[in-house]
Amino acid sequence: MRALDRALSIPAARIEQRVVHMRRKYPWATTPELCDIAASRFRRDAGLSSGAVGACAALPAIGTGLAFTLTVGQSAVFLTSAVTYALTVAELQQVRLVDDDRRRALVLSALLGREGSEIVNGTLGISTLFWAAQSLAGLPLPTVKSINARLVQRMAKRTAFKGGALAVGRLVPFGIGAALGWSGGRSLASQVIEGTHAALGPAVVNGTTGGKASRAARGDRVSGAQPAGALDATEAH
To answer: The whole model's pTM is what?
Structure first.
């Protein structure tokens, strides 16, 4: 959890600046499309960094040892990317989280995928969809800490199994580790993306959600604009 605590220390101002930069860079994009862009970047970067660690295992003699050393650092990099992604989507959807405990609740829930929201709903005794968007900012701090305790407990079990399997897979030489690392990193990122969506819900534009509705809302002002679903192929910056 130390690596997560360090990642959570990202200043709120930096997340705000990131969102401002995205809106300036993609002036045609609606909030759902900006969320898709953030997800595409996160998935791509997770795959590349994890695959790079696995690629080191192909180096003669020192490959496996180097890959093992880099795996530890790459886990911290992934956590930082996951925190940045989740907080960016929250900021895009006007859910501003400043204190560490509420940030931790959102990120832990996201890291666990859809299961994270199920755990939170069970802890609160509610069946509300998109719990973070609906109630996180207003929850009493003791309740938030209770949620975090449940999420940390589950996260420890999940990490021991799933994270360990990916770490071992990246150590396989002959380029196999690179392939396993790339696909595994993207898979973990997709889980975080799913968990973030389960916690925050879909971004809304003029009462509608999704790519088709959002593009209709802006009237396809830019004829050459990539649709949100195609961003993963182009891996836009």
So the answer is: 0.73
